[in-house]
């Protein structure tokens, strides 16, 4: 074979051996991730009121403000549990319009720790309790101070996005020598069960308990004890172009020797049109008032809501008790950054008492606009016109309210 010698010569050439490899160089350890995050909620908002004094209120003009900074400890693995925390101080109030200048006091809005597993978490400390549309428990985010509770909350993950909260909060510390004498508490169980039944369905049930011990002075009762149970249900869903929201509750219990028997219902139905640019909705609501002739207290207690959302931005009609009405809502999304709203309310007092007429209380129109300037930064404007009716007010007058708010949130 003519190629054999060549192949033999090639085979006799020794192969080049690779140089000995250097021992692997150890990479420097990556620095530990910074275990903190932060949040910010800051706004300033001038407010102007006219005509309120004719309705027994005050024509107070304010420039309200808030600066709320949150330092958040992101979850740290501690064996079987994860630990996280949040501390959120704030300075809030209203700028002085006089000659005196004072700095806002710095307080603590929230401060809590959370211990969690995959299915259960416990949150201890000062914290917001927010559920649904803030109808019974809300944080009042429009107010400079807002609302938080000194509470302990247990959350159980029920799967598929459903959950159960059980919590207890101390509302008033009587600070007497007798343990828990005159203290007040809020206890609750709130379950979100909708995801277990249908995707996109919100269906909540809750039981809330208000408890307060009686107070006496020299053996004479000064403040009666209170036990109020609130049983409620909430549903919300969107199906195609249509959506609905409803929430109802009953209250039972007693304050002193007086029985409590009250109820409320709030329902809204809407439709979204024009490729998500227009939503129209109608709403009706009723919260019972007290009829002095029954021997029971039938007035619904609104508990701790963000009522300003639902009963008019003019904030003249007051809390959700002895009030009924109808609302028309319209919202226009001009684009991703600009939104316009119109809400018109008709308010009625179901229990008119000594007042004459049908209990018509007032008509209100709220016109608003919101411009999302950039990430987290928004400018909001609102004008409200309230027309009082003499069934509920001494004079038939117009009241005006206007506000302009610049806000940053993260």
What key phrases describe this protein's structure?
about 400 residues, mainly beta, 18-stranded antiparallel β-barrel, two-stranded antiparallel sheet, 2 helices, disordered N terminus
What does this protein structure show overall?
By secondary structure, this protein is mainly beta. The protein has helices at residues 4-12, 194-197; strands at residues 36-50, 62-78, 81-94, 106-116, 120-127, 149-159, 162-172, 184-192, 202-212, 215-217, 220-223, 226-239, 242-255, 258-273, 278-287, 323-333, 338-348, 360-374, 377-388, 398-409. It has an 18-stranded antiparallel β-barrel. It has a two-stranded antiparallel sheet with strand order 10-11. Strand 6 (149-159) and strand 7 form a beta hairpin. The longest helix has 9 residues, at 4-12. The chain is globular, with a radius of gyration of 30 Å.
